[in-house]
Protein backbone atom coordinates (compact mmCIF):
# COMPACT_ATOMS: atom_id res chain seq x y z
CA UNK A 1 0.00 0.00 0.00
CA UNK A 2 1.45 3.34 -1.00
CA UNK A 3 1.72 6.17 1.57
CA UNK A 4 -0.80 8.96 1.09
CA UNK A 5 0.55 12.38 2.16
CA UNK A 6 -1.53 14.73 4.26
CA UNK A 7 -1.32 18.45 4.76
CA UNK A 8 1.40 19.66 7.09
CA UNK A 9 -0.12 21.44 10.05
CA UNK A 10 -2.95 18.96 10.59
CA UNK A 11 -1.53 16.20 12.81
CA UNK A 12 -3.36 12.95 13.23
CA UNK A 13 -2.54 12.85 16.93
CA UNK A 14 -4.92 14.69 19.29
CA UNK A 15 -2.30 16.92 20.91
CA UNK A 16 -4.74 18.77 23.18
CA UNK A 17 -7.39 16.64 24.94
CA UNK A 18 -10.93 17.72 24.10
CA UNK A 19 -11.72 18.17 27.80
CA UNK A 20 -8.79 20.56 28.17
CA UNK A 21 -9.86 22.54 25.12
CA UNK A 22 -13.43 22.72 26.43
CA UNK A 23 -12.18 23.94 29.81
CA UNK A 24 -10.08 26.60 28.11
CA UNK A 25 -12.94 27.79 25.90
CA UNK A 26 -15.30 27.92 28.87
CA UNK A 27 -12.95 29.95 31.06
CA UNK A 28 -11.95 32.32 28.28
CA UNK A 29 -15.60 32.75 27.26
CA UNK A 30 -16.44 33.86 30.81
CA UNK A 31 -13.66 36.46 30.68
CA UNK A 32 -14.80 37.73 27.28
CA UNK A 33 -18.28 38.21 28.71
CA UNK A 34 -16.81 39.94 31.77
CA UNK A 35 -14.83 42.29 29.52
CA UNK A 36 -17.97 43.24 27.59
CA UNK A 37 -19.98 43.76 30.79
CA UNK A 38 -17.22 45.91 32.28
CA UNK A 39 -17.10 48.13 29.18
CA UNK A 40 -20.89 48.46 29.15
CA UNK A 41 -21.07 49.29 32.85
CA UNK A 42 -18.33 51.91 32.56
CA UNK A 43 -20.13 53.50 29.60
CA UNK A 44 -23.50 53.48 31.39
CA UNK A 45 -22.02 54.96 34.58
CA UNK A 46 -20.42 57.76 32.56
CA UNK A 47 -23.71 58.49 30.79
CA UNK A 48 -25.52 58.50 34.15
CA UNK A 49 -23.13 60.94 35.82
CA UNK A 50 -23.13 63.21 32.76
CA UNK A 51 -26.94 63.26 32.83
CA UNK A 52 -26.95 64.00 36.57
CA UNK A 53 -24.64 66.97 36.10
CA UNK A 54 -26.63 68.27 33.14
CA UNK A 55 -29.83 68.06 35.20
CA UNK A 56 -28.51 70.06 38.17
CA UNK A 57 -26.78 72.62 35.93
CA UNK A 58 -30.04 73.13 34.01
CA UNK A 59 -31.95 73.58 37.28
CA UNK A 60 -29.49 76.28 38.40
CA UNK A 61 -29.80 78.02 35.03
CA UNK A 62 -33.60 78.01 35.27
CA UNK A 63 -33.51 79.59 38.72
CA UNK A 64 -31.05 82.24 37.49
CA UNK A 65 -33.30 82.98 34.52
CA UNK A 66 -36.24 83.41 36.88
CA UNK A 67 -34.22 85.83 39.03
CA UNK A 68 -33.72 88.02 35.97
CA UNK A 69 -37.47 88.02 35.29
CA UNK A 70 -38.98 91.52 35.61
CA UNK A 71 -41.53 90.15 38.08
CA UNK A 72 -38.77 89.84 40.67
CA UNK A 73 -38.35 93.62 40.60
CA UNK A 74 -42.09 94.25 40.98
CA UNK A 75 -43.17 91.55 43.44
CA UNK A 76 -41.24 90.96 46.66
CA UNK A 77 -43.05 87.70 47.36
CA UNK A 78 -42.10 86.36 43.95
CA UNK A 79 -38.50 87.50 44.48
CA UNK A 80 -38.36 85.71 47.83
CA UNK A 81 -39.77 82.52 46.29
CA UNK A 82 -37.32 82.51 43.37
CA UNK A 83 -34.40 83.35 45.67
CA UNK A 84 -35.30 80.36 47.84
CA UNK A 85 -35.49 78.20 44.71
CA UNK A 86 -32.16 79.48 43.47
CA UNK A 87 -30.49 78.71 46.81
CA UNK A 88 -31.96 75.21 46.78
CA UNK A 89 -30.85 74.54 43.20
CA UNK A 90 -27.31 75.69 43.93
CA UNK A 91 -27.17 73.46 47.01
CA UNK A 92 -28.47 70.57 44.93
CA UNK A 93 -25.86 71.21 42.24
CA UNK A 94 -23.05 71.30 44.81
CA UNK A 95 -24.10 67.98 46.36
CA UNK A 96 -24.62 66.51 42.91
CA UNK A 97 -21.11 67.51 41.87
CA UNK A 98 -19.76 65.95 45.05
CA UNK A 99 -21.67 62.74 44.34
CA UNK A 100 -20.43 62.58 40.75
CA UNK A 101 -16.83 63.16 41.85
CA UNK A 102 -17.17 60.33 44.36
CA UNK A 103 -18.61 57.98 41.74
CA UNK A 104 -15.90 58.95 39.26
CA UNK A 105 -13.18 58.21 41.80
CA UNK A 106 -14.56 55.03 43.39
CA UNK A 107 -16.55 53.42 40.55
CA UNK A 108 -15.71 54.69 37.07
CA UNK A 109 -11.93 54.83 37.53
CA UNK A 110 -11.75 51.31 39.03
CA UNK A 111 -13.88 50.05 36.13
CA UNK A 112 -11.50 51.70 33.68
CA UNK A 113 -8.43 50.20 35.41
CA UNK A 114 -10.02 46.75 35.51
CA UNK A 115 -10.86 46.98 31.82
CA UNK A 116 -7.28 47.93 30.98
CA UNK A 117 -6.14 44.41 31.99
CA UNK A 118 -8.06 42.65 29.22
CA UNK A 119 -5.80 43.62 26.28
CA UNK A 120 -2.87 41.87 28.00
CA UNK A 121 -5.07 38.86 28.72
CA UNK A 122 -6.25 38.69 25.12
CA UNK A 123 -2.66 38.95 23.92
CA UNK A 124 -1.69 36.03 26.17
CA UNK A 125 -4.50 33.99 24.61
CA UNK A 126 -3.26 34.91 21.11
CA UNK A 127 0.26 33.82 22.04
CA UNK A 128 -1.14 30.53 23.31
CA UNK A 129 -3.03 30.07 20.03
CA UNK A 130 0.13 30.79 18.02
CA UNK A 131 2.07 28.29 20.14
CA UNK A 132 -0.66 25.72 19.51
CA UNK A 133 -0.46 26.26 15.75
CA UNK A 134 3.32 25.83 15.86
CA UNK A 135 2.88 22.71 17.97
CA UNK A 136 0.42 21.22 15.48
CA UNK A 137 2.61 22.06 12.52
CA UNK A 138 5.70 20.43 14.01
CA UNK A 139 3.73 17.44 15.32
CA UNK A 140 2.45 16.88 11.79
CA UNK A 141 6.00 17.13 10.51
CA UNK A 142 7.15 14.45 12.98
CA UNK A 143 4.26 12.20 11.99
CA UNK A 144 5.15 12.66 8.34
CA UNK A 145 8.66 11.28 8.87
CA UNK A 146 7.45 8.56 11.23
CA UNK A 147 5.32 7.13 8.43
CA UNK A 148 8.08 7.18 5.83
CA UNK A 149 10.40 4.29 5.21
CA UNK A 150 13.11 4.37 7.87
CA UNK A 151 16.12 5.23 5.72
CA UNK A 152 19.15 7.08 7.02
CA UNK A 153 18.12 10.51 5.72
CA UNK A 154 14.54 10.03 6.96
CA UNK A 155 15.73 9.06 10.45
CA UNK A 156 17.99 12.11 10.51
CA UNK A 157 15.09 14.37 9.55
CA UNK A 158 12.84 12.64 12.07
CA UNK A 159 15.38 13.27 14.81
CA UNK A 160 15.67 16.91 13.79
CA UNK A 161 11.87 17.32 13.68
CA UNK A 162 11.52 15.83 17.17
CA UNK A 163 14.21 18.19 18.46
CA UNK A 164 12.31 21.13 16.95
CA UNK A 165 9.03 19.88 18.40
CA UNK A 166 10.20 19.50 22.01
CA UNK A 167 10.68 23.20 22.95
CA UNK A 168 7.57 24.22 21.01
CA UNK A 169 5.48 21.60 22.81
CA UNK A 170 6.91 22.68 26.18
CA UNK A 171 6.19 26.32 25.37
CA UNK A 172 2.57 25.58 24.47
CA UNK A 173 2.01 23.41 27.52
CA UNK A 174 3.46 26.11 29.79
CA UNK A 175 1.28 28.83 28.24
CA UNK A 176 -1.79 26.59 28.32
CA UNK A 177 -1.26 25.63 31.98
CA UNK A 178 -0.66 29.21 33.04
CA UNK A 179 -3.87 30.41 31.40
CA UNK A 180 -5.94 27.51 32.74
CA UNK A 181 -4.59 28.25 36.23
CA UNK A 182 -4.93 32.02 36.15
CA UNK A 183 -8.10 32.67 34.14
CA UNK A 184 -10.42 31.22 36.86
CA UNK A 185 -8.49 33.16 39.52
CA UNK A 186 -8.85 36.38 37.54
CA UNK A 187 -12.56 35.78 37.03
CA UNK A 188 -13.06 35.00 40.72
CA UNK A 189 -11.22 38.16 41.77
CA UNK A 190 -13.92 40.39 40.28
CA UNK A 191 -16.06 40.08 43.42
CA UNK A 192 -13.40 41.33 45.82
CA UNK A 193 -12.37 44.03 43.35
CA UNK A 194 -15.79 45.50 42.60
CA UNK A 195 -17.56 45.11 45.94
CA UNK A 196 -15.95 48.23 47.51
CA UNK A 197 -16.84 50.22 44.37
CA UNK A 198 -20.49 49.22 44.43
CA UNK A 199 -20.72 49.85 48.19
CA UNK A 200 -19.30 53.32 47.57
CA UNK A 201 -21.83 53.90 44.79
CA UNK A 202 -24.70 53.02 47.11
CA UNK A 203 -23.34 55.24 49.90
CA UNK A 204 -22.92 58.15 47.50
CA UNK A 205 -26.52 57.81 46.34
CA UNK A 206 -27.83 57.51 49.92
CA UNK A 207 -25.95 60.62 51.03
CA UNK A 208 -27.09 62.58 47.99
CA UNK A 209 -30.77 61.74 48.26
CA UNK A 210 -30.73 62.30 52.02
CA UNK A 211 -29.43 65.79 51.37
CA UNK A 212 -32.01 66.31 48.62
CA UNK A 213 -34.74 65.40 51.11
CA UNK A 214 -33.48 68.10 53.46
CA UNK A 215 -33.02 70.70 50.73
CA UNK A 216 -36.46 70.29 49.22
CA UNK A 217 -38.04 69.93 52.65
CA UNK A 218 -36.63 73.35 53.56
CA UNK A 219 -37.77 74.76 50.21
CA UNK A 220 -41.28 73.41 50.69
CA UNK A 221 -41.54 75.13 54.08
CA UNK A 222 -40.47 78.43 52.54
CA UNK A 223 -42.81 78.26 49.56
CA UNK A 224 -45.97 76.75 51.04
CA UNK A 225 -48.80 79.20 51.62
CA UNK A 226 -51.14 78.09 54.42
CA UNK A 227 -54.65 77.30 53.26
CA UNK A 228 -53.70 76.76 49.62
CA UNK A 229 -54.03 73.24 48.30
CA UNK A 230 -52.75 72.08 44.91
CA UNK A 231 -56.34 72.08 43.63
CA UNK A 232 -56.85 75.68 44.76
CA UNK A 233 -53.63 76.79 43.10
CA UNK A 234 -54.66 75.03 39.89
CA UNK A 235 -58.05 76.77 39.90
CA UNK A 236 -56.41 80.15 40.50
CA UNK A 237 -54.00 79.59 37.61
CA UNK A 238 -56.84 78.54 35.30
CA UNK A 239 -58.79 81.66 36.24
CA UNK A 240 -55.81 83.91 35.56
CA UNK A 241 -55.16 82.16 32.24
CA UNK A 242 -58.78 82.75 31.24
CA UNK A 243 -58.36 86.47 31.98
CA UNK A 244 -55.26 86.59 29.78
CA UNK A 245 -57.04 84.83 26.94
CA UNK A 246 -59.83 87.39 27.12
CA UNK A 247 -57.44 90.18 26.17
CA UNK A 248 -57.89 91.39 22.62
CA UNK A 249 -54.22 91.03 21.77
CA UNK A 250 -54.34 87.26 22.25
CA UNK A 251 -57.90 86.71 21.02
CA UNK A 252 -58.36 84.35 18.08
CA UNK A 253 -58.98 85.98 14.70
Walk me through the structure:
The chain is built from six helices and no strands. It is rod-shaped, with a radius of gyration of 36 Å. The protein has 253 residues and is an all-alpha fold. The termini are far apart. Helices cover 84% and strands 0% of the residues. The protein has helices spanning 18-67, 71-74, 76-115, 118-147, 152-223, 230-245. α3 runs antiparallel to α5 (152-223).
Question: Could you give a short description of this structure?
Answer:
This protein is mainly α and 253 residues long. The protein is 84% helix and 0% strand.
Radius of gyration: 36 Å
Instruction: Report the sheet with the most strands, covering strand number, pairing sense and barrel closure.
Output: none
Tally of DSSP helical segments: 6
Question: How would you classify the helix and strand content by structural class?
Answer: mainly alpha
Can you give keywords for this protein?
253 residues, mainly alpha, 0% strand, rod-shaped, single chain
Amino acid sequence: MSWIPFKIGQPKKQIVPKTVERDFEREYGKLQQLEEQTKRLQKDMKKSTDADLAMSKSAVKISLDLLSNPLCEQDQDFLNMVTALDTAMKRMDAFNQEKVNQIQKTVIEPLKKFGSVFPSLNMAVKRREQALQDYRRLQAKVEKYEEKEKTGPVLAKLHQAREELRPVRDDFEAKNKQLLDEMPRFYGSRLDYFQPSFESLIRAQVVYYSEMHKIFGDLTQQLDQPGHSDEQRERENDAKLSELRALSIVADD
